Amino acid sequence: MSCVEIDNLTKIYQKSIKAVDGLSLKIERGEIFGLLGPNGAGKTSTLNMLAGLILPTEGKIKIFGREIDSDIEIKKRIGYLPENPFLPEYYKVGEILNFFGSFFGIPPKEKNKRIEYLLSNLELLSKTKDKIKNLSMGQKRALGLVISLIGDPDLVLLDEPTVYLDPLITKSFRKLILELKEKKKTVIISSHILSEIEKISDRAGIINKGRLTAIGSTKELIGDQTLDEVFLRIIKND
Amino acid sequence: MIKRIYLISKDIFLLCLNEKWLYGFLILALLFISMVNVPFWLKDLEPFKEMSPEKNALQIGLFFINVFLVLTSVFLSVICLSHFLSPERILLILSKPVRRSEYILGVISGLYFVLLLNWFILVSALFFILFLYTKHIDLSIYLGMLPSVLLSFICIGLVVFFYTIIPNFLSGILSLFILLSGFGLTLEDIKKIEHLFLEKLIRLGAIFLPKVNSLFGISFDMLKIFEVKVNKLSTILHTAIFISVLNLISVYRFKKSYTLSVK
Fold first, then answer.
1. Looking at beta carbons, which residues of chain B come within 8 Å of A91?
2. Is B100 in contact with A70 (Cβ distance < 8 A)?
3. Contact B262 A104 (CB under 8 A)
4. Residue A129 maps to which CATH number?
5. Which of A176, A190, B7, B60 is in Cβ range 3.0-4.6 Å of A43 for a Cys bridge?
6. B95, B258, B261: best to mutate for the A interface, most A CBs within 10 A
7. In angstroms, rounded to a whole number, what is the distance separating the alpha carbons of residues A89 and A16?
8. Beta strand A155-159 with A186-190: parallel, antiparallel or unpaired?
9. Given A13, A55, A72, which is nearest B263 (Cβ)?
10. A40 touching B, CB under 8 A?
11. Mean pLDDT value across chain B
């Protein structure tokens, strides 16, 4: 059974704007999948539908063999980092993690352990008692990433996770994602930073105008070229 | 489910604690409530001779508590909803194991809690001032002021309901408008209306409107300011049903309206 099964997924906004157009895709357990595409290609809409935040106009999504909708048990197994995560500035770093962690029903001891582990991995442990409004853009982004991983999800959806991250945190992020793979977690990353996808993903799909124009293992897609070159060629030809 | 609703309402409470204007508004309300001193200071003045200073003070207190609670509930609801129903916030919270219905119920109950706290502070201030003059502990003031809580809950319900249709400050204005309509006709007046279609419609609408007059009547009666004949149980039941139905519609609308989350 695939971890994610998308069949003929279509999303139309305001009766005429087709954001996603008949997307079909299967992603296996323990796979790191890169979702590439230019701005407005439909990546964020696809991830939002996978997270159950918006409903598809047509098509079906199955996660862990079940249709998503508002199923709390499936949501507990999904971690989502939106493109611009909203972090209430009146919280301290530790407080917001406690707040989001409470939704998953994790025992307090385990939750604290997990928070400490994630914060130390993303160079944020020293900021636990800092107010969010005092964090830099990169640190806020890293905190968003910690929030998405707090429930120890089996499926992680990351929308532009490395934007604003400095090289040190980016390196730690990469290590964290590879650790997730070792634990047989599935990760879907949508990114503009193609070199990042090239380094960590097993397979990648290129979306343009809502349609999947290329899919395959990263090695197959690249061949002798770089992912940048392949991406530009496919987008131009489409 | 209860835990998730509680978490969201706690988040609303924290947001309100960080809204500095709310403190300013509360101080202003307390200043106005301090006017209940006036009937005690000027008890020999002609307008205050009709009633005892305590009754005059209670009237002034009741008036300001209601005005400030209504204004606070409308402003606070609009401000909190603009934060809590923003697409960015919805995206982050609803991607966690939270149902849409739980989210909106959490927002509503959080607003209720903040308003209840506001009410408690204002009534306590009134209680304290009266105690200074009468040296008599009369806890029935809290009971007599309870209809004000219902009034502010009506406001919250109305703002949330309108916000799911018009997500901006207009929801607040419409809510105030509906609340003011509740002051309008009594059932006796409605019965006198000629049976034209439009008038029948108005009559039907007026029956469903919250009975703001009667709520005040209950307060007057319980605080022993005036003897008012109001069917307390039916008025409270009517108000409770009105609030519940309004909230249920808001929850349903929010649950179904996925466009609120992201475009």
1. 14
2. yes
3. no
4. 3.40.50.300
5. A190
6. B95
7. 37
8. parallel
9. A13
10. no
11. 82
Chain A closest-CA separation from residue B105 CA (Å) = 15
**Contact status of B4 with chain A (Cβ, < 8 Å):** yes
The C-alpha atoms of residue B256 and residue B152 are separated, in whole angstroms, by: 26
Instruction: Decide: helix, strand or coil at residue A79.
Output: strand
Counted across chains A and B, CB pairs separated by less than 8 A come out at 73
**B55 contacts: CB under 8 Å, gap ≥ 6:** B224, B225
Using the 8-state DSSP alphabet, how is residue A18 labeled?
E
Residue B184 structure tokens: 């309008």
Q: How far apart are CA B136 and CA B134, in angstroms?
A: 5
Q: Residue A202's closest CA among A183, A213, A189?
A: A189
| CA atoms of A111 and A3, how far apart (whole Å) | 25
Pairing of strands A58-63, A66-67: antiparallel
Average pLDDT over residues B20-39: 86
A14 neighbourhood in chain B, CB within 8 Å: 263
Instruction: Give chain A's end-to-end CA distance (angstroms, integer).
Output: 32
Please tell me the total count of domains within chain A. 1
Range(s) of the domain holding residue A229 = 4-237
Q: Which residues of B touch A103 (CB under 8 A)?
A: 4, 7, 96-98
In contact, B220 and B148? CB cutoff 8 Å: no
Q: Could you tell me the two tokens for B121?
A: 């502070």
**B102 reaches A (C-beta below 8 A):** no
Check pLDDT > 80 for residue B48: no
Instruction: Show the domain range for B201.
Output: 2-260
pLDDT 10s digits, A95-123: 889 888 888 888 888 888 888 888 888 87
Which residue is it, tokens 């139905």?
A: B245
Can you tell me the ipTM of this complex? 0.81
Structure tokens at A37: 């595409």
Alpha helices for chain B (secondary structure H) = 2-17, 20-33, 38-41, 53-84, 87-94, 100-134, 140-144, 146-163, 170-181, 187-192, 197-208, 212-222, 232-256
**Count of domains forming chain B:** 1
Angle made by CA atoms B133, B136, B141, in degrees to the nearest 5: 95
Of A181-185, B148-152, B207-211, minimum mean pLDDT range: B207-211
On chain A, the residues whose CB falls within 8 A of the CB of B256 are none
Q: In sequence order, which residues have a C-beta less than 8 Å from that of residue B235 and are 6 or more positions away?
A: B211, B214, B215, B217, B218
Give the distance from CA B5 to its chain's centroid: 21
The residue-averaged pLDDT of B16-41 equals: 85
Residue A72 to residue B99, Cβ atoms within 8 A: yes
